[in-house]
Each structure stands twice: as C-alpha cells, then as structure tokens.
Amino acid sequence: MRNPKILIGLVAAGLFTAGCGSDGSSSDSSGGGAAQKALPVAINGPQEDVRKRGEDNLKVTPAPERDAPFIEQVQHRLREVILLDAEVAGETSAKCPNGVTQKAGAVSQCVVTYAGAEIPYEVKISDSYTEGSSITSYNTTPKKGLLVGKVVYNALNERYGTESGTTDASKLACDEIPAAKAVVLESDTGYKCQYWGKHANDGKGGYETLRVTIGASGGVGFENVK
Predict the structure, then answer these.
(1) Does 4 score more than 50 pLDDT?
(2) Beta bridge partners of 187
(3) What is the SS3 assignment for 16?
(4) Which of 218, 220, 216, 186 is CA-nearest to residue 1?
C-alpha cells in the first residue's frame, strides 16, 4: 500500500506532520489459453466509481481543528490515506487502541477500516522529533494490502480494454471480487480475471486467464496462468 507523506499542506511520499496547538477466487482449473469458460463479472469499460487522487469524495470531512489532540489528527489522516489507496469512496474509520506515542522513534499500532475491511498500520514518529515541538512528523506503514473489486475491474479494462490499444483482447471478465478485502502484500490474491485472446489456444482463440496479484506497495497486477 502506498506510503504518503505530508508536511503541513505539502504532500510528498511517506511522511506526515501534525500541528500541536497550531496549525475467493475462481474455481476454474483449466489454466491459461485453454480456458473456455467465462468468469461471472463482465467488464465492459471503465468503472465510474474509481476516482483520481485529490477528488472531493476521496477526502474525509470535517477535518480536525488545528489544535485537536494529536491522536485525532493521526486517525483522520489515516482515514484519508486509505481512501486514496482505495480509489473508491467508502465508509472509513480509524483507531489506535493504545494511543499514539509522541516520542522520537516511537512506533504505535493502529487499525484503519474501509468498507468493512480492516488494515493494520504502524505509525512511526520521526527520529528527529523533539519533545514539546509544535510540529510532529511521522510515517504510516500498512501491514496488509487493500483489495478493492472495482479497482481490479478498472485496472483490467485499462490494461486490456478497447481504449488500451490492445487489439487482440476482448470479452474481459473477472471473478466476483469483494468491494473491499484485506490481503497479504506481495501475493496472489486468489482471484482471477480473463480476456478472450485471438491467438490463444494455438491460434484458435480462447480465454487467457490472469491471476490477480497485489504488490509490495499495494498496487494491483495481473499474471498469466500458464
């Protein structure tokens, strides 16, 4: 999952600052090109609910007041982080059961929920933090990946759909993938997608089957089933 960075209004990758007192899967075992059975969810174009970063419906409102307790600022930011990763608007919540230790190098555990899927996060305070400072910099690191069905469908369309420039693929389809599910990072999610390839099945045409994978940073990928 991506690891965003913020510095009082400046967004980069991996670090946050907060002011203190201030500002399931397919059962088809027929493999790759030989697969001839269509998966249940047909993908006919872009998924309209998939949004770009910065759009209003990927923000959590209202934001905490600038002098809100540090833990409230962290939990709010975690909710926005998971929305940015999800790319689809949904209900979010965040909790840090034992609080967030505001000391240099301290690591705290939090859980962020998106559409019912719970993703554990670590929050690490910067090693350079000085006690009493009005600004606290911190990193957030997800310990699991977030799989979002519509994002998978959209990614398949971008890769193999008519607007992708691919000329030998059609009839895109996938397993029924949950709206949201916590998965192991850098893994095969257990779900599959497919497209009809002109040159599959020894040139006779047929479905090419793809494993749905998730990378180290939470990105969706596809691998051909041989």
Answers:
(1) no
(2) 214
(3) strand
(4) 218
